[in-house]
Each structure stands twice: as structure tokens, then as C-alpha cells.
Amino acid sequence: MGWFKRMTEGIRTPTKEKKETPEGLWYKCRQCNHVVSSDEHAQSSWVCENCAYHERIGSHQYFQVIFDNNRFTEINPHMVSGDPLSFEDTKKYADRLRGSIRKTGLHDAVRTASGNLHRKKVVVACMDFSFIGGSMGSVVGEKIARAIDYAIEHNSPFIMISKSGGARMMEAAFSLMQMAKTSAKLTQLSAKKLPYISILTDPTTGGVTASFAMLGDINIAEPGALIGFAGPRVVKETIGKDLPEGFQTAEFVLEHGFLDFIVARKDLRERLNQFITLIKN
Fold first, then answer.
1. Band of the pLDDT at 27, cuts 50, 70, 90?
2. Residue 223 is part of which domain span?
3. Strand-pair category, 110-117 with 196-204
4. Peptide bond connecting 232 to the previous residue in cis, omega within 30 degrees of 0
């Protein structure tokens, strides 16, 4: 008999008990692996205190950042996409929609809301990448269009926060039509001389970049955000050449004249307030 064989059953050594750490207590930076508590990370606006990496966040967090005391009124909150083409790839589109709604608690890939920013009334539309990659379907376009109508009706600046993989292929032409519709609505906003500020976050690509995301009176981006039409791999394969260092990052796009500013998330409220004051005056 080996010395390590336990003679009496039912005895446990305390050091053998594994203590599980509850999920969500800690945040590990994807870029530099720096670890902080989730509470500290949230207090830093979900930006790494070590390397300034801007973690992807959704409409819930952006509304906290922008609206005074996180108080707002959501616009058209219950709109849900249909399945006009009865589309099916690896699964039925209707099933994919139901699964995304259940998983994310969202109704589609954009939320729109009205509230105050430094006591100035604003309308904000914010995309959620967690809902089918932030893809632009008919509901996304319609909610943005109605939010612009709401801004015109209430004489308010309009702020768009883009985060999208592009058009939603499961809706085909219905998705592509949203590019024209949202662009036309922004023309109406401009005719009323109301400010439109576009915020491009990581990633902003495809038909979203080719339409409303790049039409702001002021186009700003978060540091390091991927901004482009097609992805770098597709571009490289198409032109058959190596791409420049930092291609399609916010810094590269700014350097080549497609952005006005890059603004860190911690400064976003103050800079938006400055821009709105300047434009409206």
C-alpha cells in the first residue's frame, strides 16, 4: 500500500477544493493583456488604462457616456425585422433573428434615443455589433430615418454612432435601399441647418461607411478603429499589392483626409458639446 492512499473515505483536504471566481469581475485587455477589475474598466469608459485600447461597447454603454445622468427616451424601441425573402443559409434568417433577440436583449442592430447632452437636447442613434455584426437591414435604416425625422421635428442635433460589418445580406436589396434612404434623410436634416455628427467606431465598414457614416458635418472616430469599405484582406487580393502600415485604421483615414478628428472616449461628451455649440451658433 502506498503512503499516499487515503485510509478513510469522506475526508477532504482543504487545499484541494477549487474555488471558482465569478465571471465578469475582471477585465483583461485584448491588446496588452493588462488586468483590472470590471468596475475600474467601466469607470475608465471601457478604455484600457495601460495602453488606451478602446474596447468595443454597445448602445447601452454609449448612452451612459453621452446622455446627462444616463437619462433618455428611446425612439421606436420595438421594431423588428421581417423575413421578406424567406432567406436561409446555414440557418433560417427568421431563426437567426429570434436567436439574436434572445441572446442580446436587443430588437435589432441599432437603438435610437432622445435626451440631453450638457443640457442640450440631442437625438442619438447607436449601432450594436453584437446583433448580427451590426449589419444594416431594413429596420436599421428605418429607425435611423425616423430618428432623423424626430430630430427635425424637435429642432435637435443628430448624432450617429456607427459600428457595423455592412449591409445585411439576408435582406439583399432591402438592405441596400437603406443607404439611399438614410442619405436622403440626412439631406433633409441639412436643409433645416441642424448639425449631424458622425462617430465611427470599431469596426465601421461596408454599406454603412458608403452611406450615412461618412456624411457628417463633422466625422470623428475613436482611436484605432477599423474604418473602410471592404476588409484589408479583400482589398489586398483585389489590387494584388501589399497594403501600407496601419491601413484602414482611424489614424490612417484621418491622415488621408476622410476624418475631421479622432476623439478618445473619455473626451467624447465634452468634444460633442463643443462641436454642437460651434455648429449651431
1. very high
2. 57-280
3. unpaired
4. no
In 103-234, DSSP assigns E strands to 110-117, 120-127, 158-164, 196-204, 218-221
- pLDDT tens-place string over residues 191-247: 999 999 999 999 999 999 999 999 999 999 999 999 999 888 888 889 998 889 889
CA angle 152, 154, 155 (to 5 degrees): 60
pTM over 0.70: yes
Q: How much is the mean pLDDT over the chain?
A: 92
Sequence-distant (6+) residues with CB within 8 A of 53 are: 29, 30, 31, 32, 47, 224
Asked if 105 and 244 sit in the same domain, the reply is yes
Distances (CA, A) of 138 to 2, 113, 119, 176, 177: 71, 18, 32, 9, 8
Helix (H, G, I), strand (E, B) or coil at 202: strand
CATH number of residue 268's parent domain? 3.90.226.10
Determine contact, residues 67/119, Cβ cutoff 8 Å. no
- Show the cell assigned to 75: 425612439
